[in-house]
Design goal:
Length: 119
């Protein structure tokens, strides 16, 4: 674990991002099945450079996008408790089947959307 005591906000987020990128590469079943390692590294570098201009919520969502490249239901980012800005997000997961794009998972209050086709 990294010691984050005394780090600035930006360096704290950058430490989190380095840890996330390292662990996704190390622990994911097939981390580069949907995106090349080079493209993944470019996405990580782009996010790293953007951290000073992003809110915490924007950084978390960008990290979620990184995990989405894995196409792995066991990997993800958990939203922090008490984050009001994140409460406005609709928690849905989608899968593109040959028949179309469908909702395959839904957060609290959205179970009625399970199985719905996105038009």
């Amino acid at each position: 674990m990294a010691d984050t005591e005394g780090l600035s906000r930006d360096e704290g987020w950058r430490t989190d991002l380095r840890l996330l990128a390292r662990e996704l590469k190390r622990r994911a079943y097939a981390p580069f099945a949907l995106i090349s390692e080079e493209d993944f590294d470019r996405e990580v570098a782009r996010l790293n450079g953007s951290i000073p201009s992003l809110t915490g919520t924007q950084i978390i969502v960008a990290m979620m996008r990184l995990t989405a490249h894995l196409d792995d239901g066991h990997a993800g980012i958990r939203m922090p408790d008490g984050e009001n800005e994140l409460a406005r997000l609709v928690q849905l997961e989608f899968f593109l089947f040959t028949e179309g794009l469908f909702v395959t998972a839904a957060g609290p209050g959205y179970s009625r959307l399970l199985g719905a086709e996105v038009g």
